[in-house]
């Protein structure tokens, strides 16, 4: 059969030698290739290190690396022959026992392509119907075990030949891609394109060799690998590789250079075309991929060596060919399917062949329905019945026009059906009439972008603006026609695209100027030459899709209508509740607090305890009486205690209390803090499902459906993790609620998604000068400042964390840098330096040996090979020569709870210090014996087989990655034992694989992995290899010995081991603060390079939160600092442009600058081996005097006051006297303090400067 021309995607692993047929130069450091399951399972680091850098043709196959079968040598200039063994040949008595190793020739510059998606049994029938293949399910043999793959050679041959039949030598393009590379942290759902060439030759299908010639009654099978030779050569004359290796080398020399900037990604809307190892690529997918490569090469030009101008010319030539081959109606088959035609794909193909290249197929479509026998082969013509022909003849012109319009876009059959069939459109929640879509084709993108099957803006844009060779011959008819690349309909869709991308990055609006620049930067053909004048015209057609709002300087800004509506919901609720009548709750809160603490055997004690109780008492009164309030404070300040006292009040308890949290762990922590009241908690996604949370897309939305909270008081913990969409949906759902309380720490990481609502609400409610108040309480606002958790005020780890909190630092707190950072060691903090990837791997193991403890406090590991000791830290209970991992039984803790005793954290996922590689390091070191035991066959194996690319086994620490409600039909395989009402697993819940462990006499359930989560002790959830660990999908579980800092939010661990690479583009002040507040007892910081460099992250120019633009309560006012924009009201910037820590310091710095005095901010002052950091240092060169200026705040906290007095004494000891005492021989100390309102008088500061410094 003559199949239509297609292209091919070919997956390859990342390889540090450039895929030239050599073993990696540093195999142990290449963690990116482990994304591929076969490599992850089979790679032997030591064996590959022994042959590092050697060519495959110089090695026996037994010494080849695991990636050899995964096309690591597609650029090899030499031929090799690989002996292929069938994976099901498990001995002579098995179903494939007569198969023998079969030689597979790999020519130079070739790749063995494997179309896995085509070889699935579940896909065979569909592919057979779609392509009229001779495939028969009854041919498939009974192997004695279950398999998802097609096994019979005739079925295999039909599928493999059909796949290869779409590839035309010298016409088809081959796109090489990787699933992961070491320099891209997040590919945003795409793949990383490696290179592009032309298909030069497709090898014939090859059958396995057998041990016998008598094959009667025996199974026969084909090798799935098919050799595709390509045109790419080192001179890049006919194809190219993108210069990633050169970019990595450049970044090693220049930390400011980011190699991710030149990464080219496969089109996000064509993910399935770049999946399953090898897949056919449509013309649209090829065009989009070439445009992405072109953008990458333009960035590389002049920066990285290579013939990039010639490669760009090659791309241009290929694009011309692709557009011609694509034609005007690439979606004809999908459109005819939507119309209801059976065998629509074959009909469309027959019509296209009859019409010829670049021809309008619709006249032939009309003839087909009128006289099918004159257009189609007889086998297809008989499928055009009278009813269908009558449907076509009576079809209203508007419906027919819509069908023709849809054919212009390369849609899937499912997309076309949803958009064309009005009933399906309504079912999908797409509210648009045919007329509206015809008038604006870009609605196909706008209306589907938030659904589970979106049509991308690129798909629409290629259909509306194909290449001139198509556009000139087949212009879009009215009313769909666009008059130019700057048509208002296109501008609106592109503006929506830019604003949606901004929302994903955290901003809920953008200045109009940034939207204009964002559109201009999109890879469009023709370009959309935007400017402010054109935007002002286009805005007339934005309607409710985009709203115009104002920046603080009155410049125009644009906001998605959806986010504007959600912001209004939040804003209205906050303002009404804050301005509403106060709730009446009569209580002696101090007595209730004292009684509660007495029950926990906590005495009234010292001055610090008295201060802590005083601020809690004031906070309780405000939280009880306010209709909306925030409770702010770091870990250890007693938020849990306060919550328990509040909820215990008879009136509040009688009205009902609902506990909500974004994570399962935070939900459980709230439940535990109020366990005596037996309150029920939910994750927010769980509570809002299904009307306001869509589990399929993970999106939160507004809805008219009523929801009853069933309680008068609603408490939301970890509120800093809420996006505006989450909070708006939640507020809208909370009917009949008297008291809404948001608890959290606004200094932690901002949420993943749009906005920073908790920070904005805290900013709105915080009283003026709150940092100098005690207690810090105002209308709807309560902040706890005094830590009591395990002598928290004097813990160096928490002192260190405060430096990255964004709050003013008390004047004596710089001693933590001298005590901890200089020495590298204290009771609660330890610093360990590393400089190379090899070194960090070794140091991690050393730190585990030195730091991990048994429950009794004793050292857990005797050495780096102490597997039993390691298992004990995860709750492993010894039995003979192995360990059992049990769930909670009664009062005895289970493995999941014990495993929270320690945790490795990293800010990143990529590179040797990223989370996947750290997990593999731990897994291979301490879990390898159990991995091997789980691979055994038959009765020798007691556990489930290793699951997923990470080979998760019994006794592993894991994290759940998907919000899962087992009650939903598609989650019914997620059984829970014992049965549980409202069973639910939230994204981010951490647990232990505690089963299944098979014993004689028990049913054989080794097909499932049973996980107990620390948030649900005593309950086990089932996970299966087939449903939860598909290679191309995202796994439901991952190893969790190491986590990203983002994933750790909402959790606490006994000891935290934090790995910090340098440079690290993801590192921010909030990330450091979050990481440094996860530990209960101790944090070990493994830092690359000098630890003193960490201090630079403590200032506002390292804030991620301040880089977001939002307008919940005030119009945004971004200011540019070193090429980046920050929200002005969230940072403290002086007139000279430097970042300081408080508004008072800004006033002092500006006053000094106004007097023309040069000063240094927080310049280190080292005397006798001790370093302090005065706020300001002023050297008067004329008089020879030096002034040290300290601005004081927070002295209401006794420990802060004590450390300030110690610092004053240090100054005096070293000859720096107070100005009131005439100064000292080594300098004069100036001390100022905030006034009662929390600020300082600028005129008094100016006078002070004038008096002292002239």
Summarize the structure.
The protein is α/β, with parallel strands linked by helices.
Describe the protein in words.
It is built from 45 helices and 45 strands. It is of the alpha/beta class and 1254 residues long. The strands form twelve sheets. Strands 1, 5, 6, 7, 9, 10 and 11 form a seven-stranded mixed β-sheet that branches. Strands 17-16-20-21-15-23-22 form a seven-stranded mixed β-sheet, with helices on both faces. Strand 25 and strand 26 (882-885) form a beta hairpin. The chain is globular and about 105 Å long. The model has no long low-confidence stretch (mean pLDDT 92).
How many whole angstroms does the radius of gyration measure?
33 Å
Separation of the first and last Cα atoms: 94 Å
Uncertain residue ranges: none
Molecular shape:
globular
Counting DSSP E segments of at least 2 residues, the number of strands comes to 45
Count of DSSP H/I helices:
45
Average of per-residue pLDDT values: 92
The largest sheet is:
7 strands, mixed
Q: Structural class of the secondary structure composition? A: alpha/beta
Strand content is 15-25%
Helix content class = 25-40%
């Amino acid at each position: 059969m003559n199949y239509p021309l297609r292209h091919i995607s070919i997956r390859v692993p990342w390889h540090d030698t450039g895929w030239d047929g050599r073993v990696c130069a540093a195999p142990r450091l290449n963690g990116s290739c482990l994304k591929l399951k076969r490599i992850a399972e089979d790679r032997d680091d030591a064996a590959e290190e022994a042959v590092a850098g050697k060519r495959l043709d110089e090695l026996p196959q037994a010494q080849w690396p695991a990636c050899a079968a995964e096309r690591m040598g597609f650029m090899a200039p030499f031929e090799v022959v690989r002996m292929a063994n069938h994976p099901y040949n498990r001995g002579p008595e098995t179903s494939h026992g007569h198969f023998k190793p079969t030689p597979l020739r790999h020519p130079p510059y070739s790749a063995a392509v494997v179309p896995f998606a085509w070889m699935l049994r579940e896909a065979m029938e569909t592919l057979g119907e779609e392509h009229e293949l001779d495939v028969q399910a009854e041919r498939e043999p009974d192997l004695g075990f279950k398999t998802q793959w097609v096994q019979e050679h005739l079925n295999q041959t039909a599928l493999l030949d059909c796949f290869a039949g779409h590839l035309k030598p010298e016409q088809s393009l081959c796109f090489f891609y990787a699933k992961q590379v070491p320099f891209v942290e997040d590919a945003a759902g795409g793949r990383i394109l490696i290179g592009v060439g032309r298909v030069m030759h497709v090898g014939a299908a090859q059958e396995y060799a057998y041990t016998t010639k008598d094959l009667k009654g025996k199974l026969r099978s084909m090798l799935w690998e098919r050799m595709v030779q390509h045109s790419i050569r080192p001179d890049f004359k006919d194809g190219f590789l993108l210069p990633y290796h050169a970019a990595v080398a450049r970044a090693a020399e220049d930390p400011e250079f980011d190699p991710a900037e030149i990464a080219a990604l496969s089109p996000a809307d064509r993910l399935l075309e770049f999946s399953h190892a090898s897949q056919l690529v449509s013309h649209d997918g090829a065009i989009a991929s070439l445009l992405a490569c072109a953008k990458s090469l333009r960035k590389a030009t002049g920066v990285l060596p290579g013939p990039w101008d010639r490669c760009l010319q090659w791309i241009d030539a290929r694009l011309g060919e692709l557009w011609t081959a694509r034609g005007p109606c690439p979606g004809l088959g999908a459109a005819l399917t939507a119309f209801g035609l059976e065998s629509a794909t074959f009909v469309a193909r027959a019509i296209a062949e009859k019409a010829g290249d670049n021809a309008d197929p619709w006249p032939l479509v009309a003839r087909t329905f009128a006289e099918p026998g004159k257009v189609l082969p007889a086998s297809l013509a008989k499928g055009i019945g009278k009813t269908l022909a009558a449907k076509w003849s009576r079809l209203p012109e508007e419906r027919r026009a819509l069908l023709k319009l849809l054919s212009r876009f390369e849609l899937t059959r499912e997309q076309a059906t949803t958009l064309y069939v009005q009933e399906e459109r309504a079912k999908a929640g797409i509210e648009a009439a045919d007329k509206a879509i015809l008038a604006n084709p870009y609605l196909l993108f706008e209306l589907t972008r938030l659904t589970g099957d979106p049509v991308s803006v690129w798909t629409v844009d290629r259909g509306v603006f194909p290449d001139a060779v198509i556009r000139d011959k087949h212009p879009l008819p009215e009313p769909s026609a666009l008059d130019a690349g700057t048509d208002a309909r296109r501008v609106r869709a592109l503006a929506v695209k830019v604003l949606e991308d901004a929302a994903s990055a955290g901003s809920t609006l953008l200045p109009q100027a940034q939207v204009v620049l964002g559109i201009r930067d999109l890879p469009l053909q023709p370009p959309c030459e935007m400017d402010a004048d054109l935007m002002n015209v286009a805005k007339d057609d934005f309607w409710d899709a985009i709203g115009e709002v104002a920046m603080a300087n009155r410049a125009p800004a644009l906001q998605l209508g959806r986010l504007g509506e959600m912001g209004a919901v939040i804003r209205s609720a906050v303002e009404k509740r804050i301005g509403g009548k106060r709730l009446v709750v009569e209580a002696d809160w101090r007595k209730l607090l004292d009684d509660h603490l007495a029950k926990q055997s906590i005495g009234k004690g010292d001055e610090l305890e008295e201060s802590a109780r005083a601020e809690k008492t004031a906070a309780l009164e405000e939280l009880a009486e306010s209709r909306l309030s925030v409770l702010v404070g770091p870990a250890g300040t007693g938020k849990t205690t306060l919550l328990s006292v509040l909820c215990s009040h008879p009136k509040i308890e009688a009205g009902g209390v609902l506990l909500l949290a974004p994570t399962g762990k935070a939900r459980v922590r709230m439940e535990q803090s109020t366990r005596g009241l037996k309150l029920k908690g939910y994750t927010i996604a769980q509570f809002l499902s299904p009307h306001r949370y869509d589990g399929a897309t993970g999106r939160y939305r507004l809805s008219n459906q009523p929801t009853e909270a069933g309680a008068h008081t609603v408490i939301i913990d970890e509120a800093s993790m809420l996006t505006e969409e989450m909070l708006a949906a939640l507020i809208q759902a909370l009917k009949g609620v008297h008291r809404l309380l948001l608890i959290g720490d606004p200094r932690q990481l901002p949420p993943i998604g749009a906005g920073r609502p908790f920070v904005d609400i805290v900013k709105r409610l915080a009283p003026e000068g709150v940092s100098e108040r005690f207690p810090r309480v105002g209308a709807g606002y309560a902040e706890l400042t005094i830590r009591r958790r395990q002598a928290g005020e004097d813990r160096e780890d928490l002192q260190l964390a405060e430096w990255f909190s964004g709050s003013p630092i008390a004047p004596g707190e710089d001693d933590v840098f001298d005590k901890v950072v200089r020495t590298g060691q204290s009771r609660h903090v330890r610093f360990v330096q590393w400089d190379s990837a090899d070194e960090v791997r070794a140091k991690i193991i050393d730190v585990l040996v030195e730091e991990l403890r048994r429950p009794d406090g004793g050292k857990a590991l005797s050495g780096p090979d102490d597997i039993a000791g390691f298992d004990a830290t995860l709750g492993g209970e010894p039995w003979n020569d192995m360990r059992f991992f049990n769930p909670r039984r009664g009062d005895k803790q289970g493995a999941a709870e014990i495993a929270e005793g320690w945790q490795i954290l990293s800010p990143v996922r990529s590179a040797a210090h990223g989370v996947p590689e750290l997990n593999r390091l731990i897994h291979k070191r301490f879990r390898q014996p159990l991995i091997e035991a789980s691979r055994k066959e038959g009765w020798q194996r007691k556990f489930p087989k290793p699951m997923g690319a990470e080979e998760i086994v019994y006794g592993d620490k894991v994290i759940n990655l998907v919000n899962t409600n087992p009650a939903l039909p598609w989650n019914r395989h997620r059984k829970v034992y014992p049965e549980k009402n409202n069973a639910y697993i939230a994204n981010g819940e951490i647990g232990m694989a505690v089963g299944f462990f098979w014993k004689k006499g028990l049913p054989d359930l080794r097909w499932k992995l049973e996980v107990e989560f620390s948030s649900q002790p005593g309950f086990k959830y089932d996970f299966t290899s087939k449903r939860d660990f598909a290679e191309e999908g995202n796994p439901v579980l991952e190893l969790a010995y190491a986590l990203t800092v983002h994933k750790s939010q909402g959790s606490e661990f006994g000891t935290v081991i934090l790995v910090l690479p340098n440079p690290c583009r993801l590192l921010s002040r909030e990330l450091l603060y979050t990481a440094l507040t996860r530990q209960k007892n101790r944090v070990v910081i493994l830092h690359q390079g000098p630890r003193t460099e960490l201090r630079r992250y403590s200032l506002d120019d390292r804030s991620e939160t301040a880089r977001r633009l939002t307008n919940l309560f005030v119009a945004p006012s971004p200011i540019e600092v070193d090429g980046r924009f920050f929200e002005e009201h969230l940072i403290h910037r002086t007139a000279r442009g430097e970042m300081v820590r408080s508004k008072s310091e800004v006033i002092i710095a500006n006053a000094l600058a106004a007097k023309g005095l040069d000063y240094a901010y927080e310049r280190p002052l080292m005397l006798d081996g001790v370093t302090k950091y005065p706020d300001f240092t002023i050297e008067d060169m004329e008089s020879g005097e030096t002034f040290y200026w300290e601005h004081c705040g927070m002295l209401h906290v006794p420990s802060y006051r004590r450390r300030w007095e110690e610092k004053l004494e240090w100054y005096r000891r070293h000859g720096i006297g107070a100005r009131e005492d005439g100064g000292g021989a080594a300098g004069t100390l100036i001390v100022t303090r905030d006034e009662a309102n929390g600020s300082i008088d600028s005129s008094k500061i100016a006078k002070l400067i004038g008096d002292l410094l002239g």
